[in-house]
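Re-run with default settings, no changes from the original entry. Doing this only to confirm the output is reproducible before filing.
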Amino acid sequence: MSFVSPRREFLTRAAILSFAAAVPMSLSACGGSGSGSQSSADNKAPNAASRAATSSRPPSNLLLNTNIAGQSVTREQVLMWEARRLQVVAQRMHNNLLASRILDLGALIFRSPTSISNIDAEREQLTDAKIMAGDVAMMHLVEDDLLVSGPAMEMAALSGQWSVCQIEIVSSMGTAEGFADWFTSQATDVDNERAMLLACPDHYVIRAIGAKGQNVIEETGGALMASHFTIDYSLGGKLPYAVDPDFPVRLTGSAASTTSSELVGGVLHQFRTVDSGGFIARPAVFFPATLPFWFVAEHRWHLACEFSNWITAYVGQVNA
């Protein structure tokens, strides 16, 4: 017989109540017509200053060209991937684990066409719901995942061999230096995680720790469960970084397990400004090579989603 402490039982119940109050029902059918978009999350408007900053509309002539595994993909395709993930996470936050698992598998295998007509509002609403629920509640939401993913991630990293997940995004506006400065300021702001959460539905918790660190709970790639790790942008770790001298602006970091502090991955995001205008981003993530191939393949879409949204937010702010 398992024993659940009164504190844990209280936190779990509080989490469920927070989700029920915060997540708009319209999100369970992501991509809807916009009915009921004035949710309780909108009305309470948590952290209004950061909401306004991260929601600045970019110029209509901003173009983002994304390359995934040698194939050019449209902004609409990336948004459709995001819309499917919004639906998965919204069901989970409605405490409908079975539905979220089914949608998670469907998003990975079938990739059904999904409406993106209301995705901007739905992205904002889901982020509001996560902030209203709070980090502790979000961690409790995925705690069963973490019991499995933590040890699995550490075991996979024992080989010391790594697979690289990389994409390329060409932005018609902004600069490499400007984007890197914007991203760093957002990622290291201990009082504001909104820009980090807003970028991808699979971000459950992203909180700055220290001067150059992040505490992250997210579903990576095709893992079908959330994982918990920390990223230290001041440490490179023993990873096979392939630095491109033509990309002088870089963000390098190591990812460590939160239970053992062992190296479980890392990042190498490289950027360069284009003389004719705009910049090129080449974000890359290192995974243990022993993980299934679809982890890397699916995480390319995760990178495309979050960096496209971050670049859009950055351009929107500098042009506001």
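DSSP finds eleven helices and ten strands in the chain. The beta strands are 64-68, 71-73, 162-171, 203-209, 213-218, 227-232, 249-257, 263-273, 279-282, 284-288.
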